[in-house]
Design a protein that fits this description.
39% helix, four-stranded antiparallel sheet, alpha/beta
Length: 392
């Protein structure tokens, strides 16, 4: 089915949904997952882009649309309406201590004390956490995860042209229109990733106070459900639902898989059932790292599209998952972005590696994370051109 061609002239949204639903399509969409700010600044410094090309860049906005036109991408898969599913209000960030090397100890918006290093983009070292006990949860967190309509109404919608409209000031009207040019999703929150953000990857809270651990998961999941319910019940039309987690690293998950299945799985099923009841069959999830041990929970509870399938040193691919779970499992991602720092031959070799995966159907290649600052502009342009030659 992936090789069957549909009518010419499909738009970007139509062909993306056709691929993921195993329907005929005219060509494979060429999608990306955004850029590091340093990458865009490097290309400006090299004279490849102008400051105006990148001004105000964010996923799916007008600058993102300009960059797609310049580089040859069709659209950014990370384009979705994002109701506030996190702390509201956030903690007020503040510097607690400065060090001679320019780094500093600071309180971040999640209430975690971290080490900030100038120019560093990796996950920071954590010194301390505001949340250690039930008293901390009651005083500082639980009220910040309660649902209110403003979490949806005051959030921003990005239109096909990159214009930003607040949901209650024109955004909903646009979301009710069928026939959009680009695939546009609904962010359904994070059912464990925000917990990990707050307590840290090495927390033993689940062993020290299981009741509190469960209450945190249930509270945050309920907020995600209510955001999703409210947005859908207003008549907003979405092409896919989308979760964010980032709860795995190169050797596997940051939570015991059986615990994840028992405590979080039912919440996924509740939200994904709501999406399907409102005609949203494609449901994707963003988790970096080696996700294999958690895929069963996601696929068994209604999440059917893995993203961004970070290749990494563990060589992630949709192929073994498809063999295990069948065609219900789709994918967006899995293109090893590190080849952008090499040469055209490396890019060509990577596209050839993707050929049999595309032939499986239900799969759209995409750089497996934001395009990093070591990427060469000409290699990215070549990738877009070559993808159309091979798959168009």
């Amino acid at each position: 089915p992936s090789q069957e061609r549909g009518p010419r002239g499909m738009n970007h949204r139509e062909r993306a949904l056709a691929v993921l639903n195993y329907q005929p399509f005219d060509r494979l969409p060429v999608v990306h997952f955004g850029f590091w700010g340093e990458t865009l600044q490097k290309w400006v410094d090299e004279g490849r882009l102008t400051p105006a090309d990148v001004e105000g860049y964010a996923d799916g906005n007008a600058a993102d649309r300009r960059l797609c036109d310049i580089l040859g991408f069709d659209f950014n898969w990370a384009s979705h309406f994002s109701p506030n599913a996190n702390l509201m209000p956030e903690f007020e960030p503040r510097v607690l201590e400065e060090f001679p090397d320019g780094s500093r100890k600071a309180l971040n918006p999640q209430g975690v004390v971290i080490l900030e290093k100038p120019g560093t983009r990796s996950i920071p070292m954590e010194f301390d956490h505001t949340l250690k006990t039930r008293a901390d949860w009651e005083e500082h967190y639980r009220h910040r995860f309660q649902w209110h309509p403003d979490r949806v109404l005051k959030s921003w919608v990005t239109t096909d042209t990159g214009e930003r409209l607040r949901f209650d000031e024109g955004g909903l009207d646009w979301l009710r229109r069928p026939g959009r040019e680009y695939a546009y999703g609904l962010f359904c929150g994070s059912l464990y990733g925000y917990v990990r953000d707050i307590i840290g990857a090495q927390s033993t809270l689940f062993a020290e106070d299981m009741d509190l651990f469960v209450e945190m998961i249930d509270t945050i999941a309920e907020l995600s459900y209510q955001n999703t319910r409210f947005a859908l019940e207003q008549g907003a039309l979405f092409d896919f639902g989308h979760f964010w987690e980032d709860i795995c690293f190169k050797n596997g998950p940051l939570i015991i898989p059986s615990l994840f299945e028992a405590l979080v799985g039912p919440h996924y099923r509740r939200v994904t059932g709501l999406l399907r009841d409102h005609g949203v069959p494609v449901i994707s999830l963003d988790c970096d790292g080696c996700i294999d041990a958690l895929v069963p929970t996601w696929i068994n509870n209604g999440v059917n599209t893995m993203f961004p399938i970070e290749v990494g040193t563990w060589n992630a691919s949709i192929a073994p998952w498809r063999e295990q779970y069948g065609s219900e499992l789709r994918g967006v991602g899995g293109m090893n972005k590190v080849v952008f720092s090499h040469d055209r031959a490396a890019v060509d070799a990577e596209i050839e590696r993707l050929r049999p995966l595309v032939d499986l159907g239900g799969y759209i290649p995409c750089p497996d994370h934001r395009i990093a600052r070591d990427a060469e502009y000409d290699n990215v342009r070549h990738y877009c051109d070559r993808m159309r030659q091979v798959f168009g």
